[in-house]
Amino acid sequence: MNIKKSILTRVRVAFLLIALFAFAIIVKVGRIQFADGNKWKAIERERRFVYQPVYATRGNIFSDNESILATSLPFYRVAFDPSIADKKIFDEKIDSLAMLLSRFYQDKSAEEYKRKIKNARLKDRRYVRLNNRQINYQEKKMMAKWPIFRIGKNKGGVIFEKVDKRFRPFGMLAQRTIGFINEDKNGAGLEYSYNNQLAGKDGEALFERMAGGSKQVYDGTEVKPLPGYDVKTTIDINLQDVAENALEKALVAHDAEYGCVVLMEVKTGEIKAIANLGRIAEDVYMENYNYAVASQGLTDPGSTFKLASMMALLEDSDIQLNDSVETGNGKQKFGGVTMSDSKEGGYGTITVEDVFAKSSNVGIAKLIEQQFGSQPQKYVEYLQKFGLNSTLGFQMAGEAKPYIKKPSDRSWSRTTLSRMSIGYELKISPLQTLTLYNAVANNGVKVQPIIVKETRKADKTIERYQAKVLNEKICSDETLKMLRQMMESVVDHGTGKHVKSPDYKVAGKTGTSRKIKNGQYIKTYSTSFVGYFPADNPKYSCIVLIDSPQRAAQYGGDVAAPVFRELADKAYARDLASHKPMHARITPDTKSLPTVKAGSQDELIMICNRLGISNHPVAGALEDEWVKADSQNRSYNFKPNKVLTNRVPDVTGMTIRDALYLLGNQGLKIRKLGNSGRVQSQSLPAGSPIQKGSIITITVS
After folding, report:
1. φ/ψ of residue 579, rounded to 5
2. Which of 132, 187, 315, 616: disulfide with 181, CB 3.0–4.6 Å?
3. What pLDDT digit, counting tens, does each position of 351-363 carry?
């Protein structure tokens, strides 16, 4: 009996405690709801409404002729406030809206979209992300006409959230030069180097946090973002295309590791093309590093450095180009180590000019040892005077600092001077080498290479850039005269014969340097060619470097020089002001004209001039890149053939190469009927809008 009473007592106590606890909860809830209700509602509103940044539209990057290299295109996320629309309109139009959403996104049925929206309306949700896919501006305009959406944001509830995406109209062209910047503000290229100008200034607005996302509240306190400045570069998009294509062909043909090309205007220092390609798979190359400028391309320059050695020698002595140099059998010891020439058996006794033209290692090292062997510091001081130990102050971040060894360095040895004279035991970038050669072409004025012309806001220039003069006179006029003569000899009868052209003179130097692995030189080479053209009135300077070719060809004159020649031919053909009047190589047939239909105006003018055929651009066509040809009275008139963005170009009459180039750049997929000749017809009418994924068929015969 006592046990039963004890149990009942415990149960009653437990029940009482639970009742008291429940009562306390009710009291607390009531206090929160009524006594402290306003306080907690204020806190909730404060946390629900927050100021968030509104990101500025990033500025554009342009080529030298205003072609867009990178731009920000508007894309949109589609959200919906289902609580806003009037009940009658909502009930009448929800079926149609759900069906259109289903057809457009193709991820849910119309019934599923209808259920999703109606459930959100019943729960009084004010923000529903309809789909994570981002739509473009044309799709936004289309959606804005749909049922419920068409009555606008304030009455219909549709929310188009703008998201800017970076877009490159020319695809992978100049990819590394344009560069990128990520969310952590790290990156490369112009996007990174000019981020402060391109980024603009973000604004701020009040947003309401809701399930599924945030909705902007337009209360008049928002601060509008300021768009970024545009950046205009010096890049010529056509020469850039030639440079990348020529470099890629050479890399594949020689199974090389990487390569770079830089083309620069002699007087202005403006870089017209810069290509950097590295191997990512067999026969596949991409722009992954800036070999021309950054530390990845910092290497022993090899024989191209012999120009600096000869410049120091000519400045410090009275030696003449016709003086004799005994190179013997092509083998000689310097500091106890044998140096060899590339020619088996050597060159014997040759002139100073031929020592450079034939790239004799023994000849160069012998001359430098004779002049500077007792005072190597003087040789290094000349290199410093030429600016080879300093950076160029290039406009893009990441420029590598050159390394020129000094006699005071612990690594200086008995062989260092002779090896430095031929481009070893030092490291400079291809852009550094090119700038030195450019100075010789520019009558001794060493200018800073530039790749950005100006920054601007709309049509207003914010800042204009010009190349700084790094050295007003790199050496004497007499030295310049001899250096230019030696470089012309390299092309006329030396190691650079592969770049010789019948139309214009080229001056330059080949380079071949052995690579280092585990501290030892191995039989793998870095090949290069650097020079300028036309040699008698220099307009462009150019360097080509191809690293670690694996096929039979291993020297700069065989591997790198042909790339230089291809780019030089294109640049010269486009620069009509540099052309000399010349007689036609073929006697023109005055009774008939060759077939000329359409194509690049520069190329058509060059062909007609060479054939002695009269040709004239009609009024308004002088600045057009693409033209149609009209024959009249044994001459051709060139009429504009406009190429408009997102419109099908007229490629009838063009060669296959030109047609594929134009159509491909417009994003069209191409089906070709026929293998050779000119385009006779195209399936899509010229001037018609280009739809995503459009296929065009061209008939060639």
Report:
1. -75, 140
2. 187
3. 999 999 999 999 9
